[in-house]
Amino acid sequence: MNIEGKIIEKFDTQDISASFKKREFVIEYAENPSYPEYIKMELIQANCDLLDKVKVGQEVSIAFNLKGRKWTDPQGNTKYFNTLQAWRIEQKSTNQAVPSSPNQDAPPPPSEEGDWVKEDFSGDDDLPF
User: What are the b/e assignments for 79-115, b being 16+ CB within 10 Å?
Assistant: First the structure.
């Protein structure tokens, strides 16, 4: 699942046990700008470091999994818990202009001829098949 929003708050990483850690954060999700939603999400294990790359107030796109658990307490009462577990955070660009320095990860711009290869058949008018 994916969601886009603005980082509102980042919390410190919590060591839950010797082998498990998590980090929570809140995003503002505004499907309807008049009624924004504040959604708490979490990162676990090595993904906790993903929040270091973004700032509070920054627009982001988040890939996450919806997790659900069932738990029965010692008195026999069953409870259910939901978790929004993020696994990728991408910064949204606020400027649609071309970056001033070339980005090696970006695809090359399309050529004037399109993405197909132009072949020279040396004046042969026959089709190449």
Answer: eeeeebebeebeeeeeeeeeeeeeeeeeeeeeeeeee
Distance of CA 50 to the CA centre of its chain: 10
- Other CB atoms within a 10 A radius of the CB of residue 23 amount to 21
Burial class (CB in 10 A: 0-12, 13-18, 19+), 8: middle
Q: Is residue 97's pLDDT more than 80?
A: no
Residues 6+ apart with CB under 8 A from 62: 2, 3, 4, 5, 27, 41, 86, 88, 89, 90
**Among candidate residues 68, 63, 53, the one with its CA nearest the CA of residue 86:** 63
- Mean predicted confidence (pLDDT) in 60-86: 96
Assess contact for 82 and 68: CB atoms under 8 A: yes
Distance between CA 118 and CA 120 in Å, rounded? 7
Closest CA to 6 of 25, 37, 27, 23: 27
pLDDT attached to residue 122:
52
Cα 97 from Cα 94, distance rounded (Å): 9
